Amino acid sequence: MTNSPGSENLKFARELFATWQACGLRCVVLAPGARCAALTLAARDIGLQVVRVDDERSAAFVALGWARVEGRPAAVVTTSGSSVANLLPATVEARQSGIPMLLVTADRPVRLRGTGANQTGDQVAMLAGSVDRSLVADASTHASSLALDAWRGAEQAVVHVNIGLDEPLLPSPIPEVHQFEVPRRRTVLDSAPGPATLQVAQRLMEEERGIVYVGPLARPRERRAARALVQALGWPVLADIASGMRDIESTLPWCGWLDGASEVPCPVLLHLGGRPTHRTTASFLARNSGNRLLVPSDRGRMEGDDEAALVLETSLEHLSMAITGLDSSSKPLPSEVESFCSRVHSARKSALEQCGFSEPWIAAQVGSVTPSTSRLLVGNSRSVRELDRWSTQVVADVHASRGLSGIDGQISTAIGLALDGRPVVALLGDQTIRHDLSGLAQLAETNLPVVVVGVDNGGGQIFRDLPFAADVSLDDFVSPRSTDLGAVANALGLRAVVAEDRESFAQGFAALAATGAPGFLHAKLAPQAEQLRLDANQMVSSVCRPS
Predict the structure, then answer these.
(1) Do residues 510 and 479 touch, judged by C-beta distance below 8 A?
(2) N or C, which end of the chain has less CB nearby within 10 Å?
(3) Is the Cβ–Cβ distance between 367 and 239 less than 8 Å?
(4) What is the pLDDT of residues 211-241, one digit of tens each?
(5) What angle do CA 451, 428, 91 make, to 5 degrees?
(6) By the 8 A CB rule, do 343 and 390 touch?
(7) What span, in angstroms and rounded, lies between the C-alpha atoms of 404 and 381?
(8) In 10 A of CB 407, how many CB atoms?
């Protein structure tokens, strides 16, 4: 019996997870099935945090959310067949965002593949174009060596480990867990900035006037480095909402408003991180390309990086080390920049007073009242753009899936963000919520402190903002629905509150946040809210353009 496939499967799986635990693995998100039974038992036996999510697509997004917070991968464990294909949406977002991920999929044994046997698709091919590395194994593979090899890649990237497991899948009876001799990897990290980085740091510190644009940053270590850098440099900061740095005192109130036509002096533009959320900000960066120094996050090419006067191929940590090692001094805000800030602040305040219960007001409200003790996940499409424009100071820890900017899996991502018990507010559009109803069902079965704010504007209204909107019928783009999302949330077991004006929204948000339990705030906008939004945008945009 000791040499049966079941025994070998379990022994292999236990050694695999014991090694990963020694490397730093803490969380396993499990989408269970028969073929991954040995992997399931092993993760439990070793004492890892195991989060069960029945829907594989949702499970992968939960792991994505966890890794955003922790800066290390969670393992996603699935059974064989189409379950593997369901990992793809979160996999492509993780790879594009630079979020580490470890995908562990059970498979039929090699001898059955290509024979027409049940659940014998090419599982490696399902993900091959979207992961950084694929590893193939079975129970005869040296488990510890495989685990070390996989973890070495998964610490920085997306790795897929596909494991063929034969029947019987488990031994009977199940043997006790024994201690494993776990190999320990010894590494030396080269953490010193190079000569080019030191030279650039010196030149930046010598400049009296400049602006730092901080684009989307996904990893905690990148955010810490960027924060230390801008504080040492002393320049005003144009912080994208997805940078996680809207709480910096020197934040400029321009993101989403400043475009290529704005006459704001920018002798030096230091661009840290990813591409802007708003096209208007992208056009401002392009206009100042001759003075732009780009230090991208470590995800390869980025749109517009060929326009920069100089691209510094270094890590944000190395540049931060170089700058914080130099003498720094505070630099006053130029008078023309201060005047521009004052005009934008005044226009934004007036617009918010007059825009009624609309998306600008909701974005500003959520951004201002979500406390620093919470995380704020903002969905793509219109939600992230509204928050980018209307929330100047945001003290919450903001996250957004800006890798491929998709709208799926956002509620599941919020679950992953909340696994450590820290409260999460998810500001999402109605279409985004429809794309992750399985995540909403999963949330209802937890006691996690997640409040989903569903902004119901009739579906797909962002298409009205596109250049071709005035020239074509939008019937195939705008997606009005009769579904009552609040009723759906309530039917799933969530506490749901409906808000149709400012007062009911503020009261509902406070009440749900105070419970410390999952909740759903259904913000139902009236048809006139779209015109109110347009009018508010126009009020602020007009003061940003040359007179």
Answers:
(1) no
(2) C
(3) no
(4) 999 999 999 999 999 999 999 998 999 999 9
(5) 100
(6) no
(7) 11
(8) 18
